[in-house]
Records
---
Amino acid sequence: MLDPAIDSLLTQRQQQDVDDLIQWLRIPSVSSDPTAQPHVEAAGRWVADRLRSGGLHVQWIETAGNPLVFAQTPPVPGVPVALVYGHYDVQPAEPLELWETAAFEPDIRNGNIYARGATDDKGQVLTHIQSVLAWLQTGRPLPLQVKFLIEGEEEVGSANLERMLPELADTLACDVVVISDSSQFAPNQPAITYGLRGIATFELTVSGPRQDLHSGSFGGAVLNPGIALCKLIAAAVDDQGRIQFPGFYDDVQPLTDQERQQFADLPHDDVAFATSLGVRALFGETGFTTLERKWARPTFDVNGLTCGHQGAGVKTIIPAVATAKLSCRLVPQQDPDKIAAALEDFFQQHGPAGVQVTVKPDHAAPGMVSGIDSPYMAAAKAALAEAFGCQPVLIREGGSIPIVQKFQAALKADCLLLGWGLNDDNAHSPNEKFALADYHRGIRASAVLWSELGKLQHG
Amino acid sequence: MLDPAIDSLLTQRQQQDVDDLIQWLRIPSVSSDPTAQPHVEAAGRWVADRLRSGGLHVQWIETAGNPLVFAQTPPVPGVPVALVYGHYDVQPAEPLELWETAAFEPDIRNGNIYARGATDDKGQVLTHIQSVLAWLQTGRPLPLQVKFLIEGEEEVGSANLERMLPELADTLACDVVVISDSSQFAPNQPAITYGLRGIATFELTVSGPRQDLHSGSFGGAVLNPGIALCKLIAAAVDDQGRIQFPGFYDDVQPLTDQERQQFADLPHDDVAFATSLGVRALFGETGFTTLERKWARPTFDVNGLTCGHQGAGVKTIIPAVATAKLSCRLVPQQDPDKIAAALEDFFQQHGPAGVQVTVKPDHAAPGMVSGIDSPYMAAAKAALAEAFGCQPVLIREGGSIPIVQKFQAALKADCLLLGWGLNDDNAHSPNEKFALADYHRGIRASAVLWSELGKLQHG
């Protein structure tokens, strides 16, 4: 049970909590865009100020890239330490023309706040900051020490944080990492995510003639790099959705009967899901259910294609170059480096004479699964049950939070992935949103979580 | 032999002829770009003014699109009438960053003038205007009537001119159409082009989910439109370069042994050709030589690909839409409408569940071959032999001049395709150029052509 004083304070603070979120969302902190760098840093300063305003001492930790914002409440002996991790950077907003309102001018309609970063991750990480600040505002001590680590490069792979983890291990020392960067299983059906997929990203380039050629004068004489690129990508995955890179599935652990049953027991309707996405049929690797494919099977996706003439009208050329942005989602045990090597080998071996094939790996991270029987998990279940009024389900997630597996390794800490948002919140898509009710409920669930974790004896 | 008075006048006029070309090339008359429309019209006005300056009466013929510029010299009874056709519109200049000097700021270096349109087609059509104006400047009558038709939509398919041909048939009435929009066979090896390929252009769109999706949360659940597009394109042509649209080759006439021999007799070196294009190997339909593939076999090319994230860095999405700009080059007897239907059928039938496939045909035109034994051909051979100092070879061209076949049909006229430029003049590519020596020689060859055609009796 949440302390009534805090409970009522959370209700009073709702408008302020929303105003805070609007302020933060106005900052276009797109970490993949070098020209947005000042905005990225401004978003970091904003959250530092917010933490400072609650009386916390902020550490502004410089990295080779965007700074880390760190803060902590006073130590509480004998109980676990929690580290809240989140990120102040966001995905690019493109394609801009598909947004109903501007991506960085937050707009509230139908109970949702619309803006890039609303759910991924500004809105979600802010729930934990607001809950701690509310708790502190009551004048009572928090029942455990909470540390905050908010970074600015999650959307570009967290490489700089990862590199600094060893030297930050003392600062970040904790028993459990709390991350809200995922979703409820369904509206009002809370979930605890115990598995994430890894990721490996690439740029594939096929180069042909020195420059674009007239498709009349030269058509038939040279291999078209656009066609060569398509053939390489087409060869990478068969019509049953099986990925063709040699050894790609070697380290993929089969799902246990128990886990398949657990997935099957979750309420999921393929037809309704397809309808919600606007497709007539779902598609994926033969022999697996949709949830299995999304959560626990690896994938290969085209993220973008760029080649030749893209404007209005016709330009009849053989393009000199064609490029594809590619990503694989990986399951635990798959090694991103091995996958990168397999992918590069495959494309090089399938690259035909007459074009030059290059593969440039970008960021990568392994997947993870965490134990489902820990006392932290039990505390989280209790907190979610109280805030949502029903028991949470245990799920996995198809997305990647690259740093999670690194935290597990570097800090020897458990991870709690508690999603407050919804699957249709349009993370990484136009019209990203976060329901204000979910935001407020997340703050409340977070407040209860501190109470539940504070009851545990520290090992 | 060219009249010595004209010969010497052509030498005197060289600087003025170059200055004229520079002026015209400065006008960015990109017909496929709606925002460039005022420039396109300005390029038409420029050539109208140039014709007017020589004492010709210009007809400014409005169409549903860009105007036609028409002018004619006085009738000469008893000899053939020649119609010079060319175009004042140009291809887009993109990719701009690959130009050494700006596409619409003509730059002369190493004896070449560099600008979009230098050879395609402003520089080449201007040779005929300059030769006629020079002839008129001497005060002597031209030995035949020359008509000029300069249009502004050749690079977007000439649809409006085509539609108006029946009503313009009297105005344009002629015995032979003269077009310089092709190339010499090799430097200093003049050529008369007796065949052109046709063209059919398309936009292929593959639509999947309503909007871009997070590749983590949704990867494995839906078919990726980028991959689906690649698979469709990959299926369209096999690894031997054979196009797979049903019936695509049905109307393709086999090359005669005589024509294959004629091609084989031309000096052509695959290794040198590959080197000139910057590729390690040539590629095309198995069983045909490079010249056969370029000139007399149909092709399928990707002109452009657009899908998902194209900027810097990584954006891990399943793109909602993927599009390809496609073109086929066709040989005579292939019907562009039949080809369009076959292509659309193929892509619709191969379009998998889970995505929507649409094919939008754009401009199209059949190919052509003209007789090689006409008196006009003989006159052209004599003119080129005098101007170049060696006999021209007979060749075909892989490119398309869509209106040529329409002229043949509507005007019952022969066609002479006389290329003054070079194959490496970068038509449709960055750093398009035209050698000033080729420009001046083209003017001289044109002047001799009027003399040779003027010797013919009109049937």
---
Amino acid sequence: MPPSASHASKPILIGIIGLGTVGTGVARVLTEHPERLARRAGRRLELRRAVVRDLGKPRGIELPPGTVTDQVSAVIDDPEIDIAVHLVGGIHPAREILLDLLKGGKDVVTANKALLCECGEELFTTARDLGRTIAFEAAVAGGIPIIATVAQSLAANQITSISAILNGTSNYILTQMARENWDYAQALHQAQQLGFAEADPTLDVDGSDAAQKLILLTWLAFGVRAQLADVHRQGIDRLDLSDLRFAGELGYTIKLLAVARLVNQQIELHVQPTLVRRQTPLAQIHGPFNAIGLVGDVVGETWYSGPGAGQMPTASAVVADLIDTVAGRTRINFERLELWRSPAPFSLQPREKIESRFYLRFQVLDRPHVLADIADILGRNQISIASVIQHEPPESLTGSSSANTVPLIIMTHRTTEGQLREAERELARLNAITPPHVRMPVAG
Amino acid sequence: MPPSASHASKPILIGIIGLGTVGTGVARVLTEHPERLARRAGRRLELRRAVVRDLGKPRGIELPPGTVTDQVSAVIDDPEIDIAVHLVGGIHPAREILLDLLKGGKDVVTANKALLCECGEELFTTARDLGRTIAFEAAVAGGIPIIATVAQSLAANQITSISAILNGTSNYILTQMARENWDYAQALHQAQQLGFAEADPTLDVDGSDAAQKLILLTWLAFGVRAQLADVHRQGIDRLDLSDLRFAGELGYTIKLLAVARLVNQQIELHVQPTLVRRQTPLAQIHGPFNAIGLVGDVVGETWYSGPGAGQMPTASAVVADLIDTVAGRTRINFERLELWRSPAPFSLQPREKIESRFYLRFQVLDRPHVLADIADILGRNQISIASVIQHEPPESLTGSSSANTVPLIIMTHRTTEGQLREAERELARLNAITPPHVRMPVAG
């Protein structure tokens, strides 16, 4: 049956829980493009209810009288509403609301990555047991259709590697630090003023947000359920501008990289500021954008990039999920996701086994034999040195007391976290090094 | 029902028509990863028949006895075969075979863009009338899931712009010309030796291949059915190395760009060597890769890149289509594609109305007032000049006869094809210019 014939049938009724930035964007698309959505879904989509906490708050959108309510039950208990758009942040009562929506017979579209990350097993299983679906394209990388790509378009592949910039706030700050020669605090301040960072930016800049998204991608791509504590995680909040400069000298830039990689049937998993070679695709992602590199064992390497957050990009993903749910694709997808693999086909790689090249910066006393001592310790721990930077000390200090320290940068060849940590224990005993030292992995 | 329960049911039987490079890749994935595919499709996929022209030719793959045949009817007439993978090149008998497969009750997966471009209406309509489906992810951009993205993931959007590198051969040649300072013939020769270009590379390097892919994307994104003749098309086969150098001086590189853009409710459509600013994503696509930038009215700008051809990348797309067809997604998608819009929602923009900045190179006599004459003609045609390069003539020629010519490069501000053509008619009358001159659009 051609879809045009079905437009006349009863519309699908939709309830939105949460009419914040994204919710308002979704409501706008639903009300401004009804014909487009009907053509693509095969049925009309009609916004029946939008649930808000504060009825008095202005929303920047006109909805028909009676649409906006402060009662979640107006969606949960309305048997005519087929699909709920769940845009409630945090864990509680977001979890309880989502469960109630499923029990109320609604298929659910959500953008809450933290919730899926923490309570995903319970929520997904409940949905399946009740014959309902949960779609969550908007939970990872905003407007980039990465869930559909991993779960559907690359279905011929075993994904073997995910390398991604998943936090736009961090990427914006790193871009500004590199471009403007600003330190972290200065770049953060500007990001907050321009709305690219929240008043409390902790979850963005400490790597938690990127780690949650990585956990969801890892689950879908590898069938492996990781906890936040399983992700070797470091944020950009303690990144020193000097490291961006030294990385630049070496032909690299620094990105907050989320990595999940299949190595010897184990999954390597981490989110860290990482040196990325300047000519590679990830190094070209500037400002508040996201990018994901996926390697599949059949297709090879593919790249996806775009706006990782924001009102309309996220609304684009939510509405795509709505259309998929109405058209029946979500049901087909949901049953076949790698979410359901049990036992998990791969285990997590112990942190100390993670292999990488490393960037190391030591603050060392400017006196003879320091480099030799460090090189000796690295060498005895089987860590070989790829390159070294040690500049002459600033002129004013030349010839002054040996208590002056200078930065020493060492790029290693491939080694393991474990070996590096062994070496670091020995290095800590050298009194020519002023702690703490800096270390970051190097991509590739 | 969890998909694992259904693995036990009767497998879906598949016939491949054409066991060339891609066909062999598809057969490899089907035979090497049966568990993976069964999990994702919900049913086992079993390769029942592979049809070849020459039974004696070695294939580099072991298939069970009786699988390989030289009779297309072994697929068409086998009522047990559910899906046919159609990998027959060209138009005839590819068209007739595809029609026979549909009439034989098969759902079809094809990679033949030329066929869909020329006979798409007949084939798609026949499929729909017979209750069958045609999936064609592999027809555009190889391993990049661009059909799924346009038709499904960005369904909330009206796509407003497509800018893409769709021909890997041309991009490989352009990359080598720029990197190695080779002329076209030299780069083509190397591309042929390495297997990146065919013995007769015409359809790749003259822009036809990219235009066919653009026509399919345009149909899906805008609901507009264009013919090859509608695409303002120019290849890289007459590109002069000097233009790559001058573009470089101006901060640009040259890419064979396929563009479809919604401007004032009309679709601008062209494939041309185009100046692309060096810092932009398309400029970073090197070698035989493809990349597509899509702008949607909700999501904004998103980017997709990866291997645009090759055995396994294309097989990845074909097998994804097979899985979608088995799982039921293809049926849902096929009915809702913008293919069926009638009348077309937009018209094609007349060529003379296409707006762009332009790169112009004239070969001019090295004598007074030539630049003034050219600038005067451009100015009277409302074309304003953004930048100019005219180098001093090589030293050996300085002071020699006025018959020596030198290159003059002019970058214009935005103007239309029509205005530029008017100006060109006048310029042709200047006897200080040696025809022909070069012109290319500038992206952005």
